[in-house]
Amino acid sequence: MSSSASRLKSHCKTGGELIIVRVRNDTGTKRIQIKPSASWADLLLQIRAVFSLPNETFTISIDPKGESNVAGELHKLLSQLGVVNGTLLYLKVTGGSVDMRENENEMDSASPMELSPTLNGETMISKQQNSQAVISPQTYKPAYIRSLSLKASLFEDNVDKKLASESGLIARQRDPSVCQHGARGQCINCAPLEPYNQTYLESHDPPIRHLSFHSYLRKLAGGADKGKFVSLEDLSFKLKPGCTEHPSWPNGICSKCSPGVVTLKRQEYRHVDLVQFQDPSIVDRFISYWRTTGSQRIGYLYGQYEEYNGVPLGIKATVLAIYEPPQISTRDSVELLEDSRESVVESLADWLGIRRVGWIFTDLEASLESGKVHYKRHMHTFFLSAEECIMAANFQNKHPNLCKLASMGKFGSKFVTVCVEGNQDNEIEMRGYQVSNQCMALVRDDCLVPCLDASELGYIRESTSKQYVPDVYYKTTIQKREITLIGKPLPMDFMLLDIPVSAPMSDQLQQGMKLLGRADPFPIENRESARQLQNNNTLIAHLSAQPPNQFIGTIADFHLLFFLTTTDLTDLTPHLPELCDGIRRENVVQVYNWKESNPAWRTIEECVRITSETLSPRSMQQGPPTYPSGSVLWSCKECTFFNSSGDQTCSMCGTRK
């Protein structure tokens, strides 16, 4: 946020605490300690190690008979699969190892939902015909050109799979001034360029400062070995466990188990090259909270990753909606609270075919001049504070980028950070960022903390009796000389990657069913402090005001769909996946069939009809209800609560009539 208060506190678990998962087999029960933020793949790896199952296949069940097997995507968090502290799982060894390479033809014809990836010879989940989750080992040698296996790359994002199959070459036209051949010929002056060609990147308008991630992979594979030995490894700042040549730290250390001295360098690539909002109103409604209350705000970006043609082999994050979690907002800080409905939001996003792609926050301060804001973030202050960078790194660690070239199956992250701030013209502007993979590793291993007296600086921890922290250096240029300095303190912009942020103009708006961007959208969740309420009265008033022939435009609202999962008027949650599928596919017939045939929705329509007839002689089918001066009830203009005619103030929010 501001330079003095970018205090992004969080009551949510950051993954530092450990939970205990009990795993029982024929020989007994063993307890596995693991972070609650760990993935299903992380737990399977630990199970294989604890029970010494290097080659055997096995199943994981939640009952002793093995009838209810646990099956989940490897990148899913344990909390999303219902694995919490004290969970008891049952392990059953099913046989020897299976060489999946013998079944490649079968895998090619299998449904993607029936397969799960193998991570560098580790665990794999395969949903067999008997509906059991079978975990079996498989090995491969990372190589960029060679196909590793359908299993290894199964859960890579679709955009990654598509870009990996493209050449990425930059076509050039024949230049008559230097090309001496005919129109169908080709020479060195007009031959296609590689996507990482430095001359092309520098001459691009505007210049491309960072390679796209897939251009970076092509660069690694462009040497004499053609990527034969390409393998992406994450940095580790921890001691290697299990060294037997000396006592454990702090009583002993050696070069074999210590991570050694680390010199940071600027990252030349980024995983996302553009953040694009589907509709400008998505951001306008998010900023409206600051305009109304003067307090800052945090939200999660939901959308999808797509190809971006602005840079070679580029990827963009398209934002379709912003979800605002529970938080305590002030003029210079935001404190995130535990969100009991986070799993509901994730399920809704999954039904709609979208995912959490980033987070957004405001750092705005009104200027004395009307309509202007202060310009606080620039090269002479900071772009992101150390606390914000650490928070961004935590988010990126929780949302890793699955990659078949990485030894652990994941490398970096596509999760983006967007800051809404004032620019040099004192106007509101959005800027996008990511932190480097090195910053992610420093935060993951608890080596980086913010400086107390300088928000733009971080600090590498000192070693203690409980934790060994290696020396971390960075290179910088002073008076045209490159020097190496220790990261105490460490300038955070050294690990920042800037990402352009855009929204289409009004004549370029994407067609189809938008999840937000309507003229009369439903109130946003968790805005009670701004007197914007989501309740049954709000729902009925909102639906009553909508034309009956505009059902699709009304229902295709992310915030309305979220409230429908929590309303107690009727239990709509079991019926929402079908509706969301129709919205996702933009299938008008499917959406209207759902409306006409769903009994739970007819209950809500009946509530709307009764309320509308009470407030106005006209029915809901004849148009929106009117509120004559002699009406028995009046609707609050702030929270839309219906009050009796004798009340001069709203019984819900206190606003005067």
Can you give a write-up of this model?
- The protein is an alpha/beta fold and 657 residues long.
- Among the domains are: 19-140, Roll (Ubiquitin-like (UB roll)), CATH 3.10.20.90; 528-644, no CATH class.
- It contains 15 helices and 29 strands.
- The strands form 8 sheets. An 8-stranded mixed sheet has the order 26-20-19-16-12-13-11-27.
- A hairpin with a 7-residue loop joins strand 17 and strand 18.
- Helix 8 (386-398) crosses helix 9, helix 10 (536-544) crosses helix 15 (599-615) and helix 13 packs antiparallel against helix 14.
- The chain is globular, with a radius of gyration of 28 Å.
- The protein starts with 6 loop residues before the first strand and ends in a 13-residue tail after the last strand.
- Range of helix content: 10-25%
Q: State mean pLDDT (0 to 100 scale).
A: 79
| Number of separate helices | 15
- For the record, what is the CATH homologous superfamily label of the domain at 19-140? Phosphatidylinositol 3-kinase Catalytic Subunit, Chain A, domain 1
Q: What Rg, in angstroms, do the CA atoms define? A: 28 Å
Number of strands: 29
Strand order of the largest sheet: 26-20-19-16-12-13-11-27
Could you say which structural class the secondary elements and strand pairing correspond to?
Answer: alpha/beta
Task: List unreliable stretches of 5+ residues.
Answer: 2-16, 97-153, 617-632
Residue share in β-strands = 15-25%
N-to-C CA distance = 36 Å
- The global form is globular
Q: The CATH topology of the domain at 19-140 is what?
A: Ubiquitin-like (UB roll)
* CATH hierarchy class name of the domain at 19-140: Alpha Beta
Largest sheet: 8 strands, mixed
CATH-defined architecture of the domain at 19-140: Roll
